[in-house]
Amino acid sequence: MEIRPAVLDDVDSAVVLHKLFAPYLVVTGTQLRHRLRDRIVPPGAGTFAAVADGEVVGWATTGLIGGSDPLDGQLRLIVDPAYRGRGAGGELLELAHEELRRAGAVSARVFADPDAAAWASRWGYRQTRLVHYAEMDPQKAPELPPVPDGLRLAPLDSLDPRQVYAADEVAQRTKPGDANITTRPYEDWLAGVWELPGMVLDLSVAVLDGDQVVAFTLGNGDHHKVWSQMTATLPDRRGLGLAKLVKCAALHGAAEAGVVGMHTANYDGNSPMIAVNHWLGYTRTATHKVLITHL
């Protein structure tokens, strides 16, 4: 078995690996090819593969949590069950940690299958909370709630990105999570969120009051499956049903575009968003432990 930085020829096999053993995620060839083709690799953005007989049997990706202070890292690690216990996971994890350390991260976060928590504790990982994955068929979305007077819906690709950035800056500081989010420079956010290949801005939706974004939902994927990665409402507009409105509108848009699966995840304890997703029709598919270690 070979453990090494991933290359473009690994992509198709890596996508199959995720479909087989992490179907609750949305991992596309477009996303992975972008990571490996980008000549200017963002600090902390590593991609590593374990390969046996020409097939990818393990995969790890890393990244920095934008706007975190102190700087936190995150990673994803998956190994084909048939190849576990042979050291591949440990080698991939060490490579991931080294990548994050070089970028200046002081901690690493991973969402782990509960069965892997004891293994991860060898590297000092401790559980902070749970995260629940959920999915649904957008064709089964409920009827769109009424839009409150004075507000309007708009797809994100029709907006100036600075309108969404202003709302996301507030959202990131007030969302549930373990990282302390302060601020993220606009150019960094533009490259790392808005312009990232795989973002489905046409299927992402905002509620506006005049020109101000007061709620939004943001997704990525390939118009076959979409990951709902962020939904937020400005603090002074919460309790008005705007998260339910934008997520429902995004589901309707996805259904019209032919999307067959919508996927998302919520921290345990984020009762308002879990309730919204339940109303929309999402069903839970997996629960992982959120683990953190100091680097």
Q: Please, what is the average pLDDT?
A: 95
Rg for CA atoms: 19 Å
DSSP strand (E) fraction?
A: 25-35%
User: Which regions have little confidence, pLDDT < 50, spanning 5+ residues?
Assistant: none
The helical percent reads: 25-40%
User: What string, H for helix and E for strand, traces the elements in order?
Assistant: EHHEEEHEHEEHHEEEHEHE
Total individual domains: 2
Main sheet makeup: 12 strands, mixed
Q: If strands are numbered along the chain, what order do they take across the biggest sheet?
A: 1-2-3-4-5-12-6-11-10-9-8-7
Find the count of extended strands (DSSP E, 2+ residues).
Answer: 12
Based on secondary structure, the structural category is alpha+beta
Q: What is the rounded distance between the termini?
A: 27 Å
CATH topology of the largest domain: Aminopeptidase
Reading off the top of the CATH hierarchy, the class of the largest domain is best stated as: Alpha Beta
The number of helical elements comes to: 8
